[in-house]
Amino acid sequence: MPVTKAVIPAAGLGTRFLPATKAVPKEMLPVVDRPAIEYVVEEASRVGLRDVLLVTSRTKKAIEDHFDREADIEAALERKGDETRLRRVRASAELAEVHSVRQPSPRGLGHAILCAAAHVGDEPFAVLLGDDLIDERDPLLAEMLAVQARFGGSVIALMEVPREQVSMYGVATVESVPTGPDDRYGIVRILDLVEKPPVAEAPSNLAIIGRYVLAPEIFEVLRRTEPGRGGEIQITDALRTLALNAVAGGTDAQPVHGVVFTGRRYDTGDRIDYLKAVIRLACERADLGPDLYPWLEEYVAAGGPKGNLS
Fold this sequence. Notes:
Layout: E1 5-9, E2 30-31, E3 34-35, H1 36-46, E4 51-56, H2 61-66, H3 71-80, H4 83-94, E5 97-102, H5 109-114, H6 117-120, E6 125-128, E7 132-134, H7 140-151, E8 154-160, E9 170-177, E10 186-195, E11 206-214, H8 218-224, H9 235-248, E12 256-260, E13 265-267, H10 271-283, H11 289-301
Parallel strand pairs: 1-4, 1-6, 4-5, 8-12
Antiparallel strand pairs: 2-3, 6-11, 7-13, 8-11, 9-10, 10-12
């Protein structure tokens, strides 16, 4: 069954960005001149996933509003003849058919995904986390959909991280799968998973990043999954159940595969990495880079904050 739906969990409290996120959802913080979550919806739409479900909370109405039409602003821009800004304002409402459901309490990523069960139904679906922005030039999600179409089951995105950082991620035990001439990235079979292991106990440095293509069987597994690390229902634990069952050759076993991503990923969940993402993306913009990058070079050459450059 082809994948047609995307789920974007967006119910987190955003405590790392307080006080900016006291009244503004972290997903609405601008990355250059668009909110972070717009990049994510655009990524889903680009591969044909135009049925998008936002899993939000009571305080996240601004996210839903962003993907709706805003008649007053559009009318004002039309009167001014500002076609450029008018196109930008309308773009978010035209990306996809955006729906929303509320997660009543913050019980973990696994629980947020479970909140999407009624909307998704009995078909595979994609999950995109808003903290991970994938450069539009790198077709990670398209590759994951191709792997899911080939093998069935579920597919997760993996990326090599420095060994000292493995305790921040879910980490995979894998075996290689032969790749074909059209495969952009490496493909592995998942043998086991562990959520945020101590560095000394991590089975590898292959970390799960925020892209998943999940079989609908994940919902029943999530319903049986007990709270894990942090007292939350972890999607890593549910995927581990599926992977171990597949390795054991269980009845109706659903395989779990990984795509080892080697492209450009922008982490907006951390303040420093968020700032790096804004600078990198702005420098690469044709309308901003020619002015920003020379200033940045001059700023660094003058000693940065230790210099006297105004």
